[in-house]
Amino acid sequence: MKHQTKTIGLIGGMGWESSKLYYERINKKMNTILGGSHSAKIIMVSVDFAEIEKHTVANDWKAIGKIVVKSAQQLEKAGADMVLLCTNLIHIVSNQINKNISIPFLHIAEATGEAIQQKGLKRILLLGTKDTMEKDFYTKILEDTYRLKVVIPNVEDRGSIHNIIYSELLKGVFSKESKNTMLEIIKKGQLDSVEGVILGCTELSMLIKENDVSIPTFDTGDIHVDKAVMMSII
Known about the structure:
four-stranded parallel sheet, 10 helices, amino-acid racemase activity, Asp_race, Aspartate racemase, Asp/Glu_racemase_AS_2, Rossmann fold, isomerase
């Protein structure tokens, strides 16, 4: 059977390590499904993370929204059929993206919620940046749409996770010490009866592997990619 594929638009650079993973995973999944020498049709706009980080520290989400909306519009004008943000946190401005483009925007929390629901799990540990864990742009979708009970680590552990992400993972550093810290936090979640863990920062899957943990892990980047690939095959 001959297949046509839609063009996947990626907003990357937040950070580039996870953006690289998105590009690789999309092409590998497309080839696995279609076979032969098939690869994906992809357009990427990559932003300067220093600008995003500066506005994040200042809590200036309006400025971040402008940057990301401009990137989404560039993708649409270039011929993308859908838009993905290659990051979890910046989905905080997803409403601004939806209002300013006419092509589908694939929300990472919706894709993740579907994947967890398919596994029949209810009580889930969420790991990510402080804003991903503490604000409701992510947890509200999981709780309201997918009826999940989202558990987040304590204040001290949230700070540790946030620091590991910004000081190491976003710079391509993956230390054994940080991995052990993350695994200890997950073990605390297991003592609180969580049934699975969301790796709610796309770089976390490069630190924590599925076989490191005795409960199901949900690699949000991989789940996001799966959704995009399935939507792109006509």
